[in-house]
Write a structure and sequence with these properties.
- The chain has helices spanning 2-40, 91-96, and strands at 43-61, 67-79, 84-89, 102-108, 111-117.
- By secondary structure, it is an alpha+beta fold.
- It folds into two domains: 1-40; 42-117, OB fold (Dihydrolipoamide Acetyltransferase, E2P) (Beta Barrel).
- A five-stranded antiparallel sheet has the order 3-2-1-4-5.
- The N and C termini lie far apart (72 Å).
């Protein structure tokens, strides 16, 4: 390949590395901003109805060829004004929620804090 081939590889490798690093930093900054907004938001408890539930399953393979699966759980709540919000919930909370459940939703920004059925 010669010197030109090595230089091209080094340039491409550096560009890909910088791209991955920038995406990582931007994701971290976005997460920290959301965390800060949630902390500054008031804790609210409102009447709500569970209108839907969903899961998001992701798969990855590690260097040893082992497969790892992660599941995230979400519930969509409708409040008295008709507005809907989808919040991430834990697996046990997800299992306890059913579509049509009515109760009191407690949340802070985009952070789910609990749901008390009535």
């Amino acid at each position: 390949m010669g010197i030109i081939g090595i230089d091209l590889f080094e340039v491409l490798f550096t560009l890909v590395f910088l791209f991955v690093l920038i995406v990582f930093v931007l994701t971290l900054v976005r997460g920290l901003r959301q965390w800060g907004r949630n902390n500054r938001s008031p804790r609210l408890t409102v009447a709500a109805v569970v209108v839907s539930r969903r899961t998001q399953v992701s798969h990855r393979h590690d260097a040893n060829g082992l497969s790892h699966t992660a599941t995230r759980y979400f519930a969509t709540f409708e409040v008295e004004s008709g507005d809907r919000m989808e919040l991430a919930v834990s697996g046990p909370e997800y299992g306890m929620l059913a579509e049509g459940d009515r109760g009191r939703l407690t949340f802070q920004g985009t952070r789910y804090l609990g749901f008390e059925r009535q």
